[in-house]
Design goal:
Structural class: mainly beta
Oligomer: single chain
Largest sheet: 7 strands, mixed
Shape: elongated
Number of helices: 0
Radius of gyration: 15 Å
């Protein structure tokens, strides 16, 4: 059982900032990549930021320079700090984690898990 719980969404003024958090809980061996995606109704889900364990972050073009992803492995938590928000940032933001769990025998199974999504609304 693995669950992702997000927090930090809400209504923000244009030009403002916010920080989202996502906590992974359950039984697992570890987490490889943690990431944030966002989705607007009627459009495809798009990558905001991704951070491999011990690796380099990558960002979507639309948030480049305005977003920072970080993680605290001791807390199984990933964060997304965003600044200079504009109405185009309005979306449901989803946390994603590539989780390693024990499989059959000594196998290790990697599964991508999603959070429930948190609404971010940026007012003009």
């Amino acid at each position: 059982q693995v669950t992702l719980v997000e927090s930090g969404g809400g209504l923000v003024q244009s030009g403002g900032s916010l920080k989202l958090s996502c906590v992974v809980s359950g039984t697992f061996l570890g987490i490889s990549t943690m990431a944030w995606y966002r989705q607007v109704p009627g459009k495809q889900r798009e990558l905001v930021a991704a951070l491999p364990d011990g690796g380099n972050a990558k960002y979507g073009d639309s948030v480049m320079g305005r977003a920072t992803i970080s993680r605290d492995n001791a807390k199984n938590t990933v964060y997304l700090q965003m600044s200079s928000l504009n109405p185009d940032d309005t979306a449901v933001y989803y946390c994603n984690a590539d989780v390693a769990q024990a499989g059959p025998g000594e196998a290790v199974l990697f599964t991508g898990y999603w959070g429930q999504g948190t609404q971010v609304t940026v007012s003009a």
